[in-house]
Design goal:
Length: 429
């Protein structure tokens, strides 16, 4: 079977890791194609073990799938090695990992600049994780980035680092009054990483092309989500890469014609972390309920997630933009016990109704949600495995999401565990 893209339909944290893990035993390759360790996937195995993954593809918990970090990812080698070691200590086979030599490295100056610039922005800050992802992508675009393959040539590593630090140290020391980065110390540190990472670095594009030629299944796993896409999200409150379906081709080296299915994941409500517009955000007891019951705290940062009702305008936009073939709706169980469950079906902006995303950032900031209220349910749905086992009002809620998004809902998550799902349509044949 050709390639499958799995991505988020909101602002991230939708439960992509769970879906990747759900598919992991039925695919041959799981490829992470964008982002860095600013992302987090939480996976709970059948025996109740919880894994928080940041750089490693969620397929790492599959017993057989090859796991690949593609060229579109930015890699902090210290974080990656700590994650490799942590998984190995828990008995996870990490020998299946391969990393593109063209993936860019996060360097000490990236982390330093990320933190200090965000601090200086004050109330205008973006809400980054401070892990250096944005500055690393910035250097990549400016053609002064350092790649994983550079770790294999100490001379090139030093030359590129010296060139980068001519500018970066001026910024850190003279503009932001911070300590300059030492070239020798950094080269020594990163060459130590090189020795450990060397066995994993590979030409991953050819590996994936060969796999597709053999008819094997390649799952392309995005970090973050559609509304955080650099080009198509709520700019400037976005990530620094393209987590949408088009980004999968660029970030993994997969041709568009190889992709046969696009699976999008959405919560049954909406959350986002960091700054930026969020039309359905709740500041009342309902918002606190969603945060508490849904355990809405960032996997990577631990920050409280902002919570709101399901936004069908955003979800429909994501489905159309990505060419979504299957929608997975997670955390339906969190809505249990609410007498009414509203869905945002449009926006009102300056007295005018919008059923699609408004063109300008200003309009989106001022969008007032138009809600359609559906009746809630009180029954425990965590044991449901078929649609017939869901309460009638829960079925109506899912059917309305499907209708508004124009895309079939294939799986409904009714709990955090791997098996806690209602399967409406198979994701794989």
């Amino acid at each position: 079977m050709p390639a499958i893209v799995l991505l988020g339909a909101q602002w991230g944290d939708e439960g992509k890791g769970k879906v990747t893990d759900l598919l992991g035993e039925r695919v041959d390759y799981v490829v992470r194609y964008s982002g860095g360790n600013n992302a987090g996937h939480t996976v709970i195995t059948p025996d109740g073990q919880k894994y928080a993954l940041h750089l490693m593809p969620s397929g790492a918990l599959s017993p057989s799938a090859m796991i690949v970090i593609g060229n579109g990812v930015v890699v902090d080698p210290k974080v990656l090695l700590a994650e490799i070691d942590g998984l190995a200590e828990r008995g996870v086979d990490v020998s299946r990992l391969r990393i593109s030599g063209d993936a860019h490295l996060i360097m000490p100056h990236h982390r330093a600049l990320d933190r200090v610039v965000e601090r200086y922005l004050g109330s205008s800050r973006i809400g980054t994780t401070g892990r250096g992802i944005g500055p690393a992508y910035g250097d990549k675009v400016a053609r002064m980035g350092i790649r994983l393959q550079d770790l294999l040539d100490p001379g090139i590593l030093r030359k590129k680092l010296e060139l980068a630090l001519r500018e970066k140290n001026q910024l850190l020391f003279k503009i932001y009054n911070r300590k300059a980065i030492d070239v020798d110390e950094t080269v020594e540190e990163y060459l130590q990483y090189a020795e450990r990472l060397r066995p994993y670095i590979a030409e991953t594009r050819v590996m994936l092309w060969d796999a597709l030629d053999r008819g094997e299944t390649v799952l392309l796993e995005g970090a973050q989500a559609t509304m955080l896409d650099m080009d198509h999200g709520t700019y400037p409150f976005v990530t620094s890469s393209n987590p949408t379906a088009g980004g999968a081709c660029v970030g993994a080296g997969i041709p568009p014609t190889a992709i046969s299915k696009v699976i999008a994941v959405s919560k049954a409500y909406t959350t986002r972390v960091g700054s930026g517009p969020f039309p359905t955000e709740l500041f009342d007891d309902n918002g606190q309920h969603l945060r508490k019951i849904g355990h809405e705290y960032g996997t990577t940062t631990g920050r409280e997630r902002r919570c709101g009702w399901f936004d069908a305008v955003v979800a429909r936009y994501a489905c159309r933009l990505n060419g979504v073939t299957d929608l997975v709706v997670t955390k339906l169980d969190v809505l249990t016990g609410l007498p009414k469950v509203p869905i945002c079906v449009g926006y009102e902006i300056n007295g005018e109704r919008f059923d699609d995303m408004p063109m300008t950032q200003t309009d989106f900031h001022h969008a007032t949600p138009i809600y359609e209220e559906l009746d809630g349910w009180w029954e425990d749905i965590t044991k449901a495995r078929t649609e017939d086992e869901l309460p009638e009002n829960a079925r109506r809620y899912i059917a309305r999401i499907e209708e508004l998004c124009g895309t079939r809902v294939s799986v409904v998550g009714v709990g955090p565990g791997r098996e806690e799902n209602v399967l409406r349509h198979p994701l794989l044949p």
